[in-house]
Amino acid sequence: MGIGFLVVGLLLTLGGIGVFVYEERKFIIDEDRNSVGTKLGRIYLIAGLVIVIGAMFLQGAIDAWKDGTSEGWGMNARDAFFCVAGAGGFTAANVILWTAFIHYYYKPKLEEKQKMNARRFMFSSIPFLVVFFLLLGQGIADYLPYPFVNGLMFGDNGLFWSKPVGGEKSNFHIQFYAIIMLSGVAVDYAICDHKFFKKYGKHGLLEGLVIVAFLCGVIGARIWYVVGNWTREGFDQNPLRAFEIWTGGLTIIGGAVGGILGGVGYLVLNKKLRFISIPWAMGIVIPTILLAQGIGRWGNFFNCEVHGAAVDISNGWSWLPNWIIHNMQYSSTSPSLVGTNQIYTPLFLIESLLNIGGYFLIVYGIGKPLKKWMADGDLAGCYFIYYGVVRIIMEPMRDPSFNMGTDNNFSIWGSLSYIIIGVVLIAFFELWSRFGKKGKNKPLPPEDSVA
Hints:
By secondary structure, the chain is mainly alpha-helical.
């Protein structure tokens, strides 16, 4: 039965996605069409339903799968229902979210009423996305192997999944952490690209910048880690180990600084982008780093790292989904807590929520109400102050195994430096807006400035 569900699910899902992408692409590139008519609306609805039903069949295949050596999961009816309903609802919310997102951001001439409806659908689908994902996770949680795999390795025995605790090791390793980080970068790019389009009328202005900033961010993250652990991890004895980035060892604090310096440098040196106001660009781009950091923290979850001390689940953590509870009973550096009523404090989750919430606080709680009184670039300073405060609060809660520096306080000093940088930036941009050289308005980008 599992194979039958799998075949049907793949056919329906891939077929629905193919039709959806084909019709969506035609609609977006057709400059003469500014609204979704009845015919196209029906195609979207039918294709979306086919995708959702296909996803439910695929989840049913997983629920019913037998590996030939056992009777499969033996999932009870309640959990199977949670899984199938969760998969269907999660897929439906995704279809609505991304359709509305594409229409709102990439169809600038869309009829105003439909544009507003797209915006409403886009934001209202997010709570359903979360709810159905949690429902799916709750149904499948007790049947998954723990700790979760955290990447793919290439070794003497070919391809195999890697785990953060035990298991075979290899130097060539594709970690989920990197994939999750790139996902955060993609989200940031999509948001910033739209805001640059609204101001300058061009998509793709940030394509080169995001590549340079990401590479500089990785370099900055590694440098900060090596400096902070120079004697703690023996870099002073073997400096060449500083280049062994595949063994792990990156810091978000250093990564953000490196990425920001690389991005600003790219804007300064790129003659084709001289029309872009750097203070304005910093105020738009830098706060979105909080979103990338919030998403990136889930890489720590898969690596079973950057957590706090062991605590009783009943001590305020029983609300967590079962799959988080089960995985947080493992640590990459400490003995397993499996079989106990404890978990390691999920600092990754706390910081993830604080970072995502911080983005909305800075952009919509500070930036919009105080726009008349703020200079371009001030929100960049707000990012540094906010994230510095978050890290100062979080650092003392960490398991000492994940601290940096010989006295375990290197990250705290880094957090304090963030706050100082933030205050200095705000002061600089305020003074520049009042006393800086007033030049002529910069020209809009030439037609051939971007692809």
